[in-house]
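Query form — protein Golgi SNAP receptor complex member 2

QUESTION: What is the three-dimensional structure of this chain?
INPUT:
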Amino acid sequence: VVENEIQARIDNIFSNLERLEILSSKEPPNKRQNAKLRVDQLKYDVQHLQTALRNFQHRRYLREQQERQREELLARTFTTNDSDTTIPIDETLQYNESLQSAHRGMDELIGSGTNILQGLRDQRVTLKGTHKKILDVANMLGLSNTVMRLIEKRAFQDKFLMLGGMAVTCVIMFLVVQYLT
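ANSWER: The C-alpha cells for Golgi SNAP receptor complex member 2 are given below.
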C-alpha cells in the first residue's frame, strides 16, 4: 500500500514537472536557462527516487521469494527412493561414450596428420637429393660443353696456325730454292 502511494506521488511529481517545463519555456529569455536547469535537476532527482523505489521493490520481491523457497524446502519430506533424487546415469554414460569416441576420432586424425606430414618431409628430402643430382649433372654437362667449345676453338686456331706455318715454310723453301740455285 505504501509503495503504491509512493509511486502515485512520484507520478504526480512527474506530471507537475512536465507542466513546470512548459512554464519554464514561457519565462523571459534571461531566466529561461536557469529555470530549465532547475526543472532538469528536479527531474533527475525524481528519477533517482523512482530507481530507488524499484530497487527496494526488487529486493523485497527477492526476499519474499527466498522465504517461500525456504518454507517449501522445510515443508518437503524426502524419501530414499524419491524420483527427484535419481541421477540419469544412462544419459551420462551415453554422453561419456560419445565424448570418448570423439576423443579417439581426434587422436586418429592427429595421427594420420602426423603420418602425412612425415611423408611430405621424406618426399622433400628425396626431391632435394634429386634436385642436387640434377644440378650436378647439369654442371658436369655445362663444364663438358665449355670444354668442348674450347677444344673446337683451339682446333680451329690450330688449323689456321698449321696452314699459316705451311704457307710460311713453303715461302721460305721457295725463297731458299730461288736464291740458292
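ADDITIONAL NOTE: Residues 55 and 61 are 10 Å apart (CA to CA).
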